[in-house]
Every structure is written in structure tokens, then in C-alpha cells.
Amino acid sequence: MTGNLTLAIVAAVLISSGVYLLTERSLTRILVGVLVMSNGVNVLFLIASGPAGNPPLIGLFAGEGMADPLPQAMVLTAIVITMAVSAFVVTMAYRSFQLHGNDEVSDDIEDRRIRELAERDDVSDSYEDIRFSDTGEDRVSE
User: Fold this and answer.
1) Which of 92, 99, 53 is nearest to 72 (CA)?
2) pTM value?
3) How far apart are CA 11 and CA 13, in angstroms?
4) Chain-centre distance of CA 139, in angstroms?
5) What would the pLDDT profile of 108-123 be if each residue is shown by its tens digit?
6) Is 14 exposed, middle or buried (0-12, 13-18, 19+ CB in 10 A)?
7) CB 123 within 8 A of CB 117
8) Is 58 helix (H, G, I), strand (E, B) or coil?
9) Is-contact 27 100, C-beta < 8 A?
């Protein structure tokens, strides 16, 4: 398969659509994003594989006419990895649905507290503003 512009555009659309779906809060959409992005990466691997050729069997075919088996092996590996990630996300979505009745990813309470502190430009009690020794000052006084 020779690389052409159409396949490159298809791969770019699939990957960008997958990245967009990964930013959603629903685990079902995240799962679809992983699958779509994986298909885009697989198309990208096939574009890079070069032209079709004879099977890579030494002794039966000439060396210059053989197809490169590495991109095909990488696509198979990517398919297995995608299957494992998909199984993990489906398991998380199922467990989330059992616990909460939906598959939405909720905010972490600690993240919310840190965000509120950052918005108030506040620091925690354990924060100690220390300057480096090359500035000539040991601590910043308030």
C-alpha cells in the first residue's frame, strides 16, 4: 500500500476525533475515543509500511521485492494493546455505573480544594517560601 494524501487525511481525522473524545467526562465516549484513535494510528502505520510486496520468506522470493513485516507486527501489537485498554475502560465504566448509576468521571475532592486555593491565591499552612542561597536571602518575610 503506497502512502497517499487521502489515507493521511483519514488518519489525521481519526486521531483528532479520538483525542477530542478522550477529553469528555463520559467513560463510554472515552472508550470510543480510544478505539477511534487506535484505528487512526493503525492507518498511519499502514501508510508508513510502503508498497505491497511478496511475503518475507527468505529463499522463496527476491529480497528487493519483499514487504516489510515490521509495520504489520506493530499494527498487531497496537490492536492487542487497544483491546487491553478497551477492556480496562469498559470495566471502569461498568463499575462506575454500578456505584453511581452513570459512567461520568467525577471531580476529585482534593483536586477541587487545590483549585479553590489556587483561585484565591492562597497557600497551605505547610507552605514555606524559601529562596535559593545564590540570591543572598534565606527566607522571604511576610
Assistant:
1) 53
2) 0.67
3) 6
4) 42
5) 888 888 888 777 776 6
6) buried
7) yes
8) strand
9) no
